[in-house]
Amino acid sequence: MTALPETLLAELRAAVGQAHVLTGADDLERHSRCTLPWDSRCAAVVLPGSADEVAQVLLAAGRHGVPVWPYSTGRNWGYGATLAPEPGAIVLLLARMDRILEVNEELAYAVLEPGVTYRQLYEHLRARGSRLWIDCIDGTPHGSVIGNALDRGVGETPYGDHFGNLCGLEVALPSGDIVRTGGSGAKTWHTHKWGVGPYLEGLFSQSNLGVVTRAGIWLMPAPQAYNAFVFELTDERHFPAVIDAFRELALAGVLSAKLHMINDVVSLTLLTQCRAEGLPTDAALTGDELAALRAKYRIAPWSCGGGLYGSAAQVRLQRRLLRKALGRYGRLQFIDAPRLALLKRLIAGARARPWLRRMAESLAGTSLPVMAFTPYIYDVLRGVPTEHFVRHAYFRNRAPRPDAQVDPAADGCGLIWFAPILPMSGGEVTPYLEDCRRRFAAHGFDFYVALLHMNPRAVIALMAILYDRAAPGAAERARALHDELVTAMQAAGLQPYRAGLLTWPRLYDAAPALARLNARLKAAVDPAGVLAPGRYGVGHPDPA
Fold first, then answer.
1. 3-class secondary structure, 329
2. Alpha-carbon distance 378 to 223, whole Å?
3. pTM of the model
């Protein structure tokens, strides 16, 4: 392991306090874990408590030429977590910077530090009786609100474009300067996204040009009425038509939520594990095994969840239009608060009474485990964070998945996210997914894909390569599949909406001029190339 110079360690301790510079073997191992087929060990973990301390750390590291990799809370599993890709680097963990600096009820925004988590913000708003909802992810509630937005994560509600709802950043630069984006109008710092002059906030998203130390984020006023809906597509021949129907509903303004449409493999990863089904953890499901599990849990080839928001009249109209557009293709159910309460009572009773379970499953047309997930779907679509959806990462893990404190990296799960974005057209999406399905099968992996509605014109095909880290050769096969998917994506004229460190070196294979521009910006802002070199393919070397 590469150790840091004692002079640098002394400067770091002077900047943030001795207790907040971690160099012990256990600390370094814990913060070097990830779910990717990657192995590197950082040299120190530094936890600053303010923007000034962040700036001091960057200056100190720059003087010594040691790379710094900043992370908010480090829960970005499947993309990199808190991994410093090269050994001997500093991990700058912003978890101590966890203050909620402002909640403006009138203008519906909050100002946060990067260590604020979804659960923390949700509980803060509920404690003060706020009228505002957060938009959370279906990932960990311990993830950073700001960190996810800066990586352009997607949520659930009409506010699900997280970076699109950031407004006004404070950024520590490698030079030690602390700047505020959005012009000089303090009163509109968090209400007018563009400011005046060149728009700079995008430079600090999916990049390595600065460390965001606070940001404003717009929040959603609680609607008068809210319904969740679940749609099940049982005949895959209608899949292209359903994609087109969702696009037209979104373009018409009927749907404003960020729909999540998942295939059968995704559903199974939420419901069970290979070990629980007596299946091998290191081999893809056969066609017969997949069919048997679909029948056991009574799941459809494709399922979709979304929310309807607005006045009571608007929600009634949305329901009617959804029925008209989708009713011919599958089963569509709406869930409001009274129906949810009834469902919860039915689930509780069915667990204790086999006859009631059989009756409930017959009436619902699905299994009790699937019904038991409905309350979590209802809640996440109204901004209530939960750990339940993160447990998909344990599908091929050899140990039982936990009910709480879910941490796939610590528990040895194998997970790589691959997330191309496509035009929202059935004619575009269908053949591309079929090609990816064949590639997954050829490498011996289950085809896991969730379609995330980014906007009415674009859809994310979020794929997970789930593998058994303990199985010989599994990590190598997973890496080979990932690399092949990247090649095929670029050949198809597509790009990822978000990428992990496995993809970064190839992001600009088809855009060399853009790579040169990014490199020039990096050289101007970070001439020593200290801050996360190579993150999102942005490097320091002279592009000429």
1. coil
2. 15
3. 0.95
